[in-house]
Amino acid sequence: MTTPGDPTDTSIILRPLEPASGQALARDLVLKTRRRKGLGDQIAVSKYLDDEFVVSFLSCTTLRCQQMLTTRQLALSASGHSDLLG
Fold it and tell me: How far is CA 48 from CA 29, 35, 51, 72, 84, in A?
């Protein structure tokens, strides 16, 4: 099941005690979950990735590079950070 909307869209304004509209539903769900777990409202995947990985990800075009990224994704899954795989 997918939830409509973009959970990272900061232009969406959510009001307390009001149900979220269609495209704001994903953002509402993510923020309520993060608050329940004691996390901040900012969704920053970059704090879990080092700069070298981000640069290599953005410039990745070869098969070897894609295999490296797949290995990194498996490591994130195994470490319990599978939510960052998006």
Answer: 21, 19, 10, 12, 8
